[in-house]
Amino acid sequence: MKDILTELEDRRNNARLGGGQKRIDAQHGRGKLTARERIELLVDEGSFEEFDMFVSHRCTDFGMENQKPAGDGVVTGWGTINGRMVYVFSQDFTVFGGSLSETHAQKICKIMDMAIQNGAPVIGINDSGGARIQEGVASLAGYAEVFQRNIMASGVVPQISVIMGPCAGGAVYSPAMTDFIFMVKDTSYMFVTGPDVVKTVTNEVVTAEELGGASTHTKKSSVADGAFENDVEALAEVRRLVDFLPLNNQEKPPVRPFFDSPERIETSLDTLIPDNPNTPYDMKELITKVADEGDFYEIQEDYAKNIITGFIRLEGQTVGVVANQPMVLAGCLDIDSSRKAARFVRFSDCFEIPILTLVDVPGFLPGTSQEYGGVIKHGAKLLFAYGEATVPKVTVITRKAYGGAYDVMASKHLRGDFNYAWPTAEIAVMGAKGATEIIHRADLGDAEKIAQHTQDYEDRFANPFVAAERGFIDEVIMPQSTRRRVSRAFASLRNKKLKNPWKKHDNIPL
Ligand code: HXC
User: Where is the CoA carboxyltransferase N-terminal domain (predicted)?
Assistant: First the structure.
């Protein structure tokens, strides 16, 4: 009996060594943690339960039958994050470069199936050379099996990808279908075709970092939602994110203890809006002053900064925030900001996360590059996402809400539950100057008359009361009481029930 127990321990120790000490040292030498070290940091101490530690590949080509490391390049299992269950897979670069074989894929599929069945998030840590070259089509099939599960899990359980090494070729499409992608600066990259192929096909010379590093994907492509300095920071931030999310689409997000009165008054907000309507101010100040303990988890912080997306808590409950940022492009909507916010709104709606929308938007960005790039369809994504969302929706217009952008930004007409405006709100088809130049074109040569017309237009429309008279704004609120008003609004909506008509699925303008 004792021998058997010892054998188990020996086998386990051997499996834990992955591709061997030399390769583990090489992994550390690159500033990367091993697959198991990453899991240890991700989940609560001692909570990880591993599956399939002894699985090995079945390939007999290219001498592979003589190298059968236990675990086959991926560590899979489940554990808890602050006591809440998550499923995890972590690719082991020390074993055949973390490449994906048929059995490696089966291990991932097994935990994804369990995650869907048991209603818990899947967190995938990617560090892989891609398809196991020795296995050929068996590996490609394995990828497709994972893809199919990503699709089935979408909207059922949150899926989070952390890229901590190479992720190239078709392998990128599994993370691409998950809800959030995080990358580690300098040690991770993602691309469909690498620098060598790019050079051959397009003659462009580009480094792996430039082509698909963390900076590229968080600032230019928007493929990734956040970039972190190292493995440790990335995993700590994933834990923080998971705390905001429900385990699955049948559950509400967790309610955390809070130490911040929902009644808190912020008198400084009464002077947040500058006197000059064209002077910017920082919308993040409003977000952090409304949030419990000022805690804001921003998503896609470095991309399309004219719109801000992220999570806060109000009375301990998760709320998704979408806010125009007047500091960047005057907070206008454009292709990038519409796409960014639309995806965020859809994620929130999938997982029953109420949405707070803070509006200061002068309209859509004009120009050929926007029109040629399809701003019509991209803007429609955000409009569609808001309109289909059935979660509680509370909107506060702080300053401008002009034109179509007024409609889009969770207006009353898109089933906004509470639509508040600050007294500084201006709700109109466009700014006074533009409006005057159109409706009083005949007077354009007469500066005095134009000034008078502009003043008249401002007096009539540069306020929230025309909309409030029609009931499009439920209440004009004092800026200082925004946290209290918004918290009470969401509290009143906790039992909201709203269903869209049955359909197979919608046809959002992709
Ligand atoms: C099998 C692989 C492998 C792979 C790496 N290794 N990639 N084994 N299949 N895809 C092995 C190496 O042989 C080596 O084994 C070990 O992993 C570490 O690799 P190195 O090359 O020494 O590491 P490094 O210099 O850091 O380079 C990492 C790398 C490079 C950039 C990922 O290994 C690489 O380019 N690999 C091939 C990538 C690739 O072409 N993959 C297929 C892409 S197509 P030893 O024994 O020496 O430690 C694809 C399609 C997916 O993935 C389609 C889905 C639909």
Answer: 1-257
**271 alpha carbon, distance to own chain's centre:** 31
The one catalytic residue in 131, 401, 405, 432 is: 405
- Assign a CATH topology to domain 2-182: 2-enoyl-CoA Hydratase; Chain A, domain 1 (3.90.226)
Domain boundaries, the chain: 2-182, 267-425+464-492, 431-462
Give the residues across from 152 on adjacent strands: none
Candidates 18, 169, 213, 363; catalytic one = 169
Which of 96, 143, 149, 164 best tests ligand 1's pocket when mutated (most atoms within 8 Å of CB)? 96
Farthest-apart Cα atoms in the chain, separation: 102
Distance 216 CA to ligand 1 centre (A): 22
The pTM of this model reads: 0.95
Of 479, 297, 306, nearest in space to 382 by CA: 306
Protein residue closest via CA to atom 17 of ligand 1: 97
Q: Would 2-182 and 267-425+464-492 be classified into the same CATH topology? A: yes
Tokens of 127: 């560090």
Q: How many CA atoms lie within 13 A of 460 on its CB side?
A: 13
CA-based nearest residue to 337, from 287, 408, 402, 280:
408
Residue 132 alpha carbon to ligand 1 centre in Å: 8
The CATH class for the domain spanning 267-425+464-492 reads alpha beta
Q: What are 402's strand-pairing partners?
A: 428
pLDDT digits (tens, 9 = 90+) for 318-353: 999 999 999 999 999 999 999 999 999 999 999 999
Considering only CA atoms, which of 69, 67, 33, 71 is closest in space to residue 50? Answer: 71
207: left (phi over 0), alpha (psi -120 to 50) or beta: beta
Q: Tens digit of pLDDT for each residue in 139-173?
A: 999 999 999 999 999 999 999 999 999 998 888 99
Which residues does ligand 1 sit against, CB inside 6 Å?
Answer: 23, 96-97, 99, 129-133, 140, 143, 166, 168-171
Check residue 361 and give left, alpha or beta (phi > 0: left; psi -120 to 50: alpha): beta
Q: How far is 71 from 57, CA to CA, in rounded Å?
A: 9
* Per-residue confidence band for 432, with pLDDT thresholds at 50, 70 and 90: confident
- Element spanning 254, H or E: none
| Secondary structure of residue 69 in the 3-state scheme | coil
